[in-house]
Design a protein that fits this description.
Layout (H helix, E strand, L loop, with lengths): L15 H8 L28 H11 L34 H13 L3 H18 L19 H12 L2 H21 L1 E6 L2 E6 L17 H16 L17 H20 L10 H8 L12 H4 L6 H11 L28 H12 L4 H20 L1
Antiparallel strand pairs: 1-2
Helix pairs in contact: 3-4, 3-5, 4-5, 4-6, 5-6, 6-8, 12-13
Length: 385
Amino acid sequence: MPGLFVATSQIYCTGEVLQQVQMAKLFDDDKYCRYEVDCSSCSGFPKKTIPSSELQKILQTYFEEPVLHWQKPLFLPISHIFLFFQKNVIIKVFLFFRESYWVMNGLHLSEMTETARGMILNFVYLVKRYGFVSNGGWVYYEQRSQPPLLPLMVESFYEVTRDRDFLRQVLPAVETEYSFWMQNCSFAVSMSGLTHILNQYNVPVRQLINTVCFKNIVRMKLWIELTSGAESGWDFSSCCDTQTSPILPADLNAIMCRSEHLLASFHRILGDEEKALSARIKAFESLLWDHLSFYPSNMALLWAQCYSKLKMADQGYARKVFLGLDYPNGLPTSLSESGQQWDMPNAWPPLQHMIIEGLSGLNSAHAKELAFRLAQRWIQTNHQI
């Protein structure tokens, strides 16, 4: 992972201009970006508080309105706004990395495999450039990622196309991304004489190092936690807010576990020497099956089949899923009513899919029936809406 990063893109207009515009709360959304046409034009910006009306005049003089999503093609090679992509296909700038996996599955069902191929090649391009797939398609996302679902995207593409040449083409990038997470986002936990390696979201301060806010160490630490929470995709919730980096998330580690199985499978398909799987399942059974607090995303362990004994999986779901059965509209993202977007009563469609698929894969008639009921409830909810 790169060290401390000083952003050079013009979207990062640092100093008094950005400071006063943000503090004045001129826009409902802080991501309502206005980028400077000529940063030198504002070099004489006064270092005193300016009334909001005067700030608006300055913005109208020196800044351009943001591009609306539907006004221009998605993949524009504008270095200070969008990341550059090689394939002019849908989905990257305005969707986040993690949602793209489920979008891609929809493309396969719609027989749009070439579009899915282009998406994967765009992600491969990002891995080659940054070492990982960025959070999204804007330049301010290029220093953090999201849950690493690229191996699963390649799996779904291969299951539809059986294209071994394509699999061989993209496999090095899939391994590079996996290595990035293992080298830069892992943490060693010792228990009962054993050391387990698990993954975490922990984004170092690589952005905007020279800005005013980072002269305060408390703000710097807060920025680390907020960006780590954003990298988790659960921004924000009672789980991932200002204390994200100390957590070893079950869902992230489930994805890494499934990725390890897929990497071994890819090498086997291509006739290569099969690479050894990690000891992650042992770590799961030691550390992640019992939780101080329950989040439905913990059930990703079932979806990724991260267990060595089926009995453990059956007991795990029995202890936890029943907590969510009283909710008629599907499983909420958490059981905490914090008012944040990834908490009760809100639900996330891919999470429903992960839980339902995980239950369906158990060798239990009760689990399969439960998966069916959860699927029915979710479909009925969406139909009513």
